[in-house]
Structures are given as C-alpha cells and as structure tokens.
Amino acid sequence: MKMAVPQRAAGVRTPGILSAAAREAGASLVRNLSIPAPFSDPALKAQFLEDHSQRFCAFRRASALLALVIWTCFLWWDFSFVRSKRRSTCAWPTSLRCALRASRC
Length: 105
What we know:
It is built from five helices and no strands. It has helices spanning 7-10, 17-33, 42-55, 57-84, 92-103.
C-alpha cells in the first residue's frame, strides 16, 4: 500500500527546495511579527477583542496558575533553606530584595 505524500514534501530531494523553504519561513516570520494595520471599524475591533479574550482565557488562567505554583515552590525552597542555615551565611534577605526589585519592573 502506497502512502499519499503531498507534492511539496515529495520534492524535498530537488535542489534549491531548502532555500525556498527558508525564504518562505522568513517571510512568514516577518508577517507574524509585524504590526498589523489598525481596524477600520471600531465595532469590528471590539468584536475581535471579545473573540480574542474568550479564545485565550483558558491559556491565561493556566499560565497564572502555573506561575503561582512555581513561585510557591521557590518561596518554600527559600524559606526551608533559610531555616537550615545560620544567619551569618544566609543570603536570603539580599535575594528577596533583588526578586522584589525585579518584580516591580
């Protein structure tokens, strides 16, 4: 039984296909990272923003939950480390100040 292979994938061995694929990937990257044109209609913009917020709501919630779990683990590790070390060798207060200063940015 022969598997159906798309024509584009079947021609991988032809010379120059990799440079064409690289150009296509570069053009796609430029299209995806460039600033889009503004909406002409404010109602269309509001509809897009509503749709975008609904589609990515679960992703934002999962990201926030993951961040909370990670920071809880970091804090637990730091506090357990502080309890086990002598005060003179502990750098935890300095690292906490650095973390708080970095989170304000």
